[in-house]
Design a protein that fits this description.
It is a single chain. The protein is an alpha+beta fold and 408 residues long. It contains 12 helices and 19 strands. 25% of the residues lie in helices and 25% in strands. The two termini are 14 Å apart. It binds FE2/S2 (inorganic) cluster (FES). The site of FE2/S2 (inorganic) cluster (FES) has 10 residues, from loops. The site of FE2/S2 (inorganic) cluster has 10 residues, from loops.
Length: 408
């Protein structure tokens, strides 16, 4: 993060610690219609106009570090093979043989020099080119060059692999904008996968994500965990272009690290991390579906995926520094780190099923958000911009009011 931006975050924290009145000029936020969380219509709009044309984090580049290593991305009703070619490039393809659609990869991850369909053995190289067809003469006029695997746009940002189902998407780093700029000092490309957590939750994916976009709840539901570590009163929020956002909470103890793990953090400290990321827990909301509470002691990407309008999955992918072989399976530090997060996640998730039931019932009209919850509203404004306001029925829209309060 640039020095002037870090100084602005510190100043905003100081202001928030003193503030006890509603910020002058900030609007009362309009109600967010509950049907955005419950209707099949809005879910379908998201599928058609949001998920199909947005960069989506898929895996870590270090999970496919070797030539020929691959991983399957199975989300949103799609199945994509992400693989590293012999030239070292990471590429993505729909997992569908161009003969009759059988998968060219059957397992979640693995290593292969060629992608061979198990149905009739059509064979593709790691660039997706069809290179062998058994008894090819029986296809008559047939050009293998026209039957390569269908590509999916794929790019790598600082060690994270993203895919995009649009034909010709804007470059990933352009879409990430300020997030990519601010997080460059975290050297995420040098970090390694340390562990994962996975949850399936009976609520709309946005209801689960909302819990990670505000700290208003911290004292109420995290009194023995987060509230002992971070000072929610000093929450400093930045609304960033593209629906992204930042939320910095000052740490109550050890500005050097160790927030989420054991006190053995020095071994795993990420070198060169700016003070703003040491003194505070800076959680970035990255449009459309993940947050990352960066910390020099290690941190996860917390990613949310829709399953249906009333069910979602949440996946935490932890990265950190220190010896590559130290992970949640082999090291006490990372085991504790991931286990502590698991406790906090379950605290965050405890009301979600009930919230979804309230949204589905007539007992609740929609979300009434306060100044501290404006990141949620900002995300909804961006949903409407991406989906296209003309596609959204008037009763399902949110009024755009936060642009004047965003950071340039
Ligand atoms: Fe793949 Fe026939 S479906 S070779």
């Amino acid at each position: 993060m640039r020095n002037d931006r870090a100084a602005a975050v510190s100043a905003q924290i100081a202001y928030e610690l003193e503030r006890d009145t509603h910020p002058e000029g900030f609007p009362t936020l309009p109600l967010i219609p509950k049907a955005r969380y419950t209707s099949q219509e809005f879910f379908d709009l998201e599928m058609d106009h949001l998920w199909s044309k947005t960069w989506l984090v898929a895996c870590r580049a270090d999970e496919i570090a070797e030539k020929g290593q691959y991983r399957l991305f199975r989300r949103l009703g799609k199945e994509v093979v992400i693989t590293r070619g012999v030239d070292g490039e990471v590429r993505a393809f729909h997992n569908a043989c161009q003969h009759r659609g059988a998968p060219v990869v059957g397992s979640e991850c693995g290593k292969a020099n060629l992608l061979v369909c198990r149905y009739h053995s059509w064979c593709y190289d790691l660039t997706g080119r069809l290179i062998r067809v058994p008894e090819e003469h029986d296809f008559g006029e047939f050009d293998k060059a026209e039957h390569g695997l269908k590509k999916v746009a794929c790019d790598v940002w600082d060690g994270w692999v993203f895919v995009n189902f649009a034909e010709d998407p804007v470059p990933l780093v352009e879409e990430l904008g300020r997030v990519a700029e601010d997080l460059a000092p975290m050297t995420m490309g040098e970090l390694r996968l340390k562990g994962r957590l996975h949850y399936r939750i009976k609520c709309n994916w946005k209801a689960a994500l909302d819990a990670f976009l505000e700290a208003y709840h911290v004292n109420a539901i995290h009194p023995k965990t987060v509230a002992t570590l971070l000072d929610g009163k000093g929450t400093a929020i930045g609304l960033l272009k593209g629906g992204h956002s930042r939320m910095a909470l000052p740490k109550k103890r050890s500005a050097a690290g160790g927030t989420w793990g054991t006190d053995d953090y020095e071994k795993y400290d990420i070198e060169g991390v700016p003070e703003v990321f040491r003194a505070n827990n800076c959680a970035y909301g990255v449009f459309p579906n993940f947050v990352t509470p960066v910390d020099s002691a290690g941190f996860p990407f917390v990613v949310f995926w829709p399953v249906s309008k009333g069910e979602c999955e949440c996946e935490l992918i932890f990265v950190g520094a220190g010896p590559e072989e130290d992970t949640a399976e082999t090291s006490e530090y990372w085991r504790t780190f991931v286990a502590n997060y698991d406790v906090i996640q379950n605290e965050d998730f405890q009301f979600l099923e009930h919230i979804q039931a309230s949204l589905e019932s007539g007992a609740f009209d929609g979300l009434t958000l306060c100044h501290q919850e404006r990141r949620i509203y900002w995300m909804h404004e961006e949903f409407d911009r991406r989906i296209g306001i003309d596609h959204i029925p008037a009763a399902l829209r949110v009024a755009p009011v936060l642009e004047p309060f965003s950071e340039s």
